[in-house]
Recover the amino acids of this structure.
């Protein structure tokens, strides 16, 4: 649904569906990564129950929450470069740099919460 909404917004705002579609895809993937972790705790528990006991090397494994935040930020950067009237070929590398930066910072700042099986 994010792809459709951002594609329509990209077409209305920029006259370019590619910017909106790429932004929507990245935001949708980001929400897919972090939303299940936040929706998982029941009524009687909170997010601290999801923290693993040993988080000595936070970036050694896949950090689902940090990846979600990074992909969502990359989508917003792609859309923002459209507002800055920059070319799509400038927006994609800017989004990659933003995603890597957010992933590294969030990977060290937040515990690596995992989904329960």
């Amino acid at each position: 649904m994010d792809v459709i909404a951002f594609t329509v917004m990209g077409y209305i705002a920029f006259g370019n569906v590619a910017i909106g579609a790429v932004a929507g895809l990245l935001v949708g993937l980001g929400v897919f990564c972090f939303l299940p972790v936040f929706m998982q705790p029941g009524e009687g528990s909170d997010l601290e129950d999801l923290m693993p006991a040993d988080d000595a090397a936070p970036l050694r494994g896949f950090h689902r929450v940090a990846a979600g935040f990074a992909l969502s930020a990359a989508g917003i950067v792609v859309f923002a470069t459209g507002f800055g009237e920059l070319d799509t070929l400038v927006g994609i590398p800017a989004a990659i740099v933003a995603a890597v930066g957010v992933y590294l910072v969030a990977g060290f700042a937040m515990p690596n919460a995992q989904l329960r099986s």
Summary: The two ends are 27 Å apart (CA to CA). The mean pLDDT is 82. Residues 81 and 87 are 8 Å apart (CA to CA).
